[in-house]
């Protein structure tokens, strides 16, 4: 308590909150029950990052593994809760969380219990080829975990291994659905011409169809998903790509609600161009894929009206609506699924997931999205039951601690703190965004890379996206006391 109250004179200088009210708030926050028992009280910075032990480990690893994208070396045995440790004894508050992939803290006891159970041990050493040899308990595992939190209206799942894999599989499902519709339904079989032409990659067996995505989108790095990724050239250079359409994603002004009229006009422009592409692109789209918040492309937001408009366009033109919730899903935005913020008239046709779920796949509801024959949507593993068991434990922990509610509350608190900080340092926090989106918050910084580097020296691990965005991706157990610490360290960086 004392260490936190020592920050009050500084915090009281923030203009938008009277000191007395601020003290009452922080006293209340300090007494809030921790969501992760036994985690560090705060960061510890003993050396530069990387320190000498990390440098030794990096040098050794570089001989056998490409380390050029390395952020920091980690000692996972000493990482706990919201804190990530390195081999030199540095302990950082982690608000990047393995690129938004750690849901309930490092070395979470609930997950450890699930990971060391006899059920998990059997699953790990007897990994099944799920399409051919599923466990007798596979339906129960799905029903009590992955499907327990399925988006409304989507009661079936196809499991995969990664976010890219999930999107690839969803695209395949969309193409097969579209061609079956064009043939007249599931009961209509393939023609001899279709069968033969498919083997030489020619139409009609290999149809000239497409998936429509958006500028700055990121949907993965496999061949189909990479063709819909538009965030950075480095992902795409030298890789053959499909001739698929790219629609403009709205370039909104922030905060969204303060520029409603301008943003509405921009969103309508993008919807009009999307419809034109759907109607005129030389390889007709079978589906539209979109992220609720464009993450890797710079944390770009749009209003619910834009996404409702997309949904109506897909229904109007009889194509599928795929929502890529790989990064936004599993509670990060104050809803379990980010598209729940939109108030859609009908659910998406497919929702892809991974990252915080620790497994991957796509949800769907329409049985017509099941191919008309076996082995069309298939691979050896078709996911991983061990990871599905882990997701079940994650769901249990989220429900036990009301972590979606926590993310909503903490996100509101953190956004308000960043807004006040931005009023004092307007050159440092530009285009603050993520209001009402839980802890899925970002802003633009003219010296983004320097801020990220200095943050490590202040005991905080933060990530970036796009060309200049600082993005926050804390875990679901991130609380107001962690937000206090983050705001304090950011203030120190901005003053330097």
Helix-strand layout with pairing:
Elements: H1 2-5, H2 8-12, H3 19-30, H4 52-62, E1 83-85, E2 91-94, H5 97-100, H6 109-115, H7 118-125, H8 138-144, E3 156-160, H9 163-183, H10 192-198, E4 210-214, H11 223-227, H12 233-236, E5 246-247, H13 260-280, E6 285-290, H14 304-316, E7 320-324, E8 350-353, E9 360-364, H15 385-401, H16 403-424, E10 430-433, E11 441-444, H17 448-457, E12 460-461, E13 463-465, E14 469-472, H18 480-495
Parallel strand pairs: 2-12, 4-5, 4-6, 6-7, 7-8
Antiparallel strand pairs: 1-2, 3-9, 8-9, 10-11, 11-14, 13-14
Helix pairs in contact: 6-15, 8-15, 13-14, 16-18
Characterization of the model:
- The longest helix is centred in the last third of the chain and has 22 residues, at 403-424.
- Mean pLDDT is 94; it is low at 1-24.
- It is globular, with a radius of gyration of 24 Å.
- With 496 residues, the chain is α/β, with parallel strands linked by helices.
- It has two domains: 32-94 and 403-495, Aspartate Aminotransferase, domain 1; 118-398, Aspartate Aminotransferase, domain 2 (3-Layer(aba) Sandwich).
- The strands form three sheets. The protein has a seven-stranded mixed sheet. Strands 10-11-14-13 form a four-stranded antiparallel sheet, with helices on one face. It has a three-stranded mixed sheet with strand order 1-2-12.
- Helix 6 packs antiparallel against helix 15 (385-401), helix 8 (138-144) runs parallel beside helix 15 (385-401) and helix 13 packs parallel to helix 14.
- The protein starts with a helix and ends with a helix.
- The chain is built from 18 helices and 14 strands.
- Helices cover 39% and strands 11% of the residues.
- It has helices at 2-5, 8-12, 19-30, 52-62, 97-100, 109-115, 118-125, 138-144, 163-183, 192-198, 223-227, 233-236, 260-280, 304-316, 385-401, 403-424, 448-457, 480-495; strands at 83-85, 91-94, 156-160, 210-214, 246-247, 285-290, 320-324, 350-353, 360-364, 430-433, 441-444, 460-461, 463-465, 469-472.
- This is 4-aminobutyrate aminotransferase.
- Its EC number is 2.6.1.19.
């Amino acid at each position: 308590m004392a260490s936190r109250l020592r920050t009050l004179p500084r915090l009281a200088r923030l203009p938008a909150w009277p000191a007395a009210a601020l003290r009452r708030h922080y006293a209340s926050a300090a007494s809030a029950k921790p969501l992760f028992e036994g985690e560090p009280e705060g960061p510890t910075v003993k050396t530069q990052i990387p320190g000498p032990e990390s440098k030794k480990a990096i040098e050794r690893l570089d001989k056998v593994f490409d380390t050029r994208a390395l952020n920091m070396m980690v000692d996972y045995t000493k990482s706990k809760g919201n804190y990530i440790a390195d081999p030199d004894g540095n302990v950082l508050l982690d608000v990047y969380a393995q690129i938004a992939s750690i849901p309930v803290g490092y070395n979470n006891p609930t997950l450890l219990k699930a990971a060391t159970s006899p059920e998990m041990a059997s699953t790990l050493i007897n990994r099944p080829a799920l399409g051919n040899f599923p466990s007798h308990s596979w339906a129960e595992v799905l029903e009590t975990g992955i499907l327990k939190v399925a988006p409304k209206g989507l009661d079936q799942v196809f499991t995969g291994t990664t976010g890219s894999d999930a999107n690839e599989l969803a695209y395949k499902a969309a193409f097969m659905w579209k061609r079956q519709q064009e043939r007249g339904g599931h009961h209509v079989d393939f023609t001899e011409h279709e069968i033969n032409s498919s083997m030489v990659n020619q139409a009609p067996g290999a149809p000239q169809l497409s998936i429509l995505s958006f500028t700055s989108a990121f949907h993965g790095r496999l061949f189909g998903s990479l063709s819909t990724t538009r965030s950075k050239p480095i992902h795409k250079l030298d890789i053959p790509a499909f001739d698929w359409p790219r629609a403009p994603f709205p370039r909104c002004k922030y905060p969204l609600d303060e520029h409603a009229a301008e943003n509405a006009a921009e969103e309508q422009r993008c919807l009009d161009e999307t419809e034109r592409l759907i109607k005129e692109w030389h390889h007709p789209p079978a589906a539209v894929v979109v992220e609720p918040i464009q993450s890797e492309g710079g944390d770009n937001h749009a209003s619910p009206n834009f996404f409702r408009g997309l949904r109506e366009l897909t229904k109007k033109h009889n194509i599928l609506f795929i929502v890529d919730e790989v990064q936004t899903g599993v509670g990060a935005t104050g809803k379990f699924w980010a598209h729940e913020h939109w108030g859609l008239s009908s659910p998406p046709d497919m929702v892809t997931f991974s990252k915080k779920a620790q497994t991957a796949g796509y949800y769907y509801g329409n049985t017509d999205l099941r191919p008309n024959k076996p082995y069309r949507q298939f691979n050896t593993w078709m996911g991983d039951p061990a990871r599905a068991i882990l997701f079940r434990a994650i769901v249990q922990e989220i429900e036990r601690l009301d972590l979606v509610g926590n993310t909503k509350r903490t996100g509101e608190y953190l956004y308000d703190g960043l807004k006040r900080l931005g009023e004092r340092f307007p050159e440092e926090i530009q285009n603050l965004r993520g209001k009402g989106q839980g802890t899925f918050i970002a802003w633009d910084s003219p010296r983004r890379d320097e801020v990220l580097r200095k943050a490590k020296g202040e005991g905080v691990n933060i990530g970036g996206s796009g060309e200049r965005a600082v993005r926050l991706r804390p875990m679901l157990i991130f609380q107001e006391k962690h937000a206090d610490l983050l705001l304090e360290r950011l203030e120190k960086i901005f003053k330097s």
